[in-house]
Every structure is written in C-alpha cells, then in structure tokens.
Prior knowledge:
The protein is an alpha/beta fold. Helix content is about 35%, strand content about 15%. The chain has an eight-stranded mixed β-sheet, with helices on both faces. The chain has a four-stranded antiparallel β-sheet with strand order 9-10-13-12, with helices on one face. Strands 1-11 form a two-stranded parallel sheet. It is globular.
Amino acid sequence: MRIQGTEKSKDGLCPGSCVQGSDFEHGGNIYEIAGQLGIPENELIDFSASINPLGLSRKVKETIRTGMDGLINYPDPDTSVLRLKLAEHLDIDPATILCGNGSTELIYLIPRALKPVQVLIPAPTFSEYERAVRTQNTEHRTQIKYLEIEKSDDFRIKHDDFIAAIRMLNPSREQRTKNIDGLCSGLWALSSGCMAFLCNPNNPTGALLQRSEILEIAEAARKQRCYLMVDEAFIDFTPEESVIHDVKDNPYLIVLRSMTKFHALTGLRIGYAVFHTDLIRRIQEFKEPWTVNNLAQDAAVTALDDREYIEKTYRMIAREKKYLEKNLKKFGIRFFPSTANYYLLKVADAGELVGRLRNKGILVRDCSNFKGLDNSYVRIAVKSRRHNRLLLNELKDICRIIPTKLVPEGRNRGTGIQKTRTGFRLEDCRNDRGTQ
C-alpha cells in the first residue's frame, strides 16, 4: 500500500486527482449520439447502459397509462404505499426505507447529510460517489482516498484490503468539528467523520463480494465508527448476497438500491436506501420533498408485484450471458467474470473500437474515464439475442480486419487472466474546487 502524489498540502496530504480517469461521463446518452450521427434515437442499439432488455413490463405500461390523470396531484412526499410494498417485498421495516429520484439522488443526499471528513472509494467504481463527495462540502475540504483494485484479481475487491484501508481513516477532531459546521448532534458525536463507498456487484467490473465478506467490512467500519454505503444497484441478479437485512444491526451500514436496471424504470427515476433507525431521521432532514413523482411510485409498486416479469428476466439474462461468454471466448475477446448484466472487456484501443461500433449505430461504454482504468477497457450490457448477435458480428468483423483493436498486443487471445502477487495501494485525493 502506498499513497501517490508529488505535491503535499500543508497538512501533508496529496492534493489533486492521483488516479487516472474520471470525467464523470456515463453511458446511455443516446440523444447526444443520435444528434451527432443524424439519426433517430430508436435506431441506436445501446449496450452502454445496463438496462433490462425486456423493457417495461406490460403491467407497468398499463399502470402508467391509467395513472396519467393523477398527475394533477402532488405526489406523496413520504412515498408511503411504495415503502410498504418494498418492506413487504424485502421483509424489512418500512420506517427504515427512504425513496429517491433514482439512487443517484440518494448518493448525493447521504454525504450532504453526513458531511464526511475522509472518504474511501475503490477504483475503478461508479464515478458519482466521488462527485457527490466533491459537491457536498464547498467550504471545507474532504479528503478522498482511493483503494486501487488489482486487475490480476479479475478486479475483485479483496475485503481484507478494504478493511485495512478503513482502519487507516482517522481524521482529527479539529477536522470533524469544521466539517459539521457546529451541528454536532448525538449521531455525529458517535461518528469518526469517515465514510466508505462500496458497489456490490461493482460497476463497471461486475465483480461481487460475498455477503459474509461485506459483513466483515461492515463490522470493521462499525468499530472504526465509519459509515459504509453499500450500493446494491445490480444485486437483483444475486439477491442472496445482499446485506439489506443486516442494516438493523449496524447503525453505520447503509444499503442503496435502484429500480432502474432490473425493472427498466430508467426514465421514471426510482431508487431507495435502507438505514438504521438511528440514522434515517437525520438523512430525512436534508431531503427535498416531492422528488419521486406519481407515475414513478405507482410503476414501482406494480413492478415489484410482477413475478412473471421478474422470473422471465432471470431466465433471459442467464441465457444471454452464456451466449455472450461462449462467443467472446470464441473470438478471443478478453472479458472479466461478472455476476451482473454487463461485462468489462479488455481491448487494445477502446476509443477506436467505440468509434467503429458507433458508426454502425451500436453504443458501448468507453471505460477510460473510470479511475483505475485506461483506454483499453469497454463495458457492454447484456441485451436480447438479436442485439447480442449484432454486436458479436460487428466485433468479429473488427477483430478480423484489425485484430489488435480487440486483443491487446503481447497477450494471448482468450479470457484467462494471469494471477500475480497482489497487494493494494491507497491513492490520495483532495477535494479542491476546480480539480476533476
């Protein structure tokens, strides 16, 4: 483990971004690409956003259609019916659930409420964690530490390393006092002023930590008095590894969920978080009212009850993952093991590959702006057989014409990833305004 950076600030910490990547861009921006190509959005095949290829269920569409007249009313600010349905679906206390306008609203809300002094984020992972921390506190700096995930471990976070990194978080009492603006509630008096983010399965790698490993991390965070936010946006494909039922036993554990990916409610924006009862009241104080609209609440309730759609999704994703893996191996395209509905591919030149596919109307995610990744990684979603076949055919053609654009030089084709001696590094970054 080492902290990189050449400049030191007065407190001995490394300012600026010390890990490559992160321009806070995302996949799924079909409108911009369609405008650039001069074609309608529906002519694009979007592998850059990992959304259920089944689309909205028939029952959800009917709920939206019949719910239009209700748009003249303000939405329920407490999302009462939806929280009750989520509680029934998950077998948890509805009083511990907070719904938001997509999980992204909650990713920003939680640091704004908790005002962490030091934050731990693995790299690579979802970039909005960093942005949420950077924007939540403009008066005082928040120190961000990055735990670099080793490619030699298939980009799987080693939970022992994450625990060791959490134990290194130790802001001074003076830093904590400055960051909470004098609002030192009983809750903050118990906190060390630290927060860690953990995406499970991770985005963009698809790597999963087992529930037992997450619980060990959560216990270490509790002992360190460090808040741990576990983002389970893609956990629907491996629900047995969720720690959502363990929140009640740990006041420092927060679990975040999304209904965007699995239920394809992307444009309606619906997500939720589960908190310990000692914590949720403070978070609610910082939340704006009416952020979840009527249609989103109604559609989410319907989606949770649609067992036929849920089971069909499980079967389809499992079938299409096998199909993709078989053919990616056949073409010699290197991919990393994934438990989610997407794959991280290792290529020679992500930019050129993305450009060639874009010209064919196929969008994949260039991952070069993820911290910890370079311009040799792309992410693809698992879609329908027809769309998966189209993507594979284009990859096959590119591989035949310009093979080095898919297979990095000096590497044998295939998916085997050589194991090397592992370790971990903490990359240090200061929340300086204007530094991205």
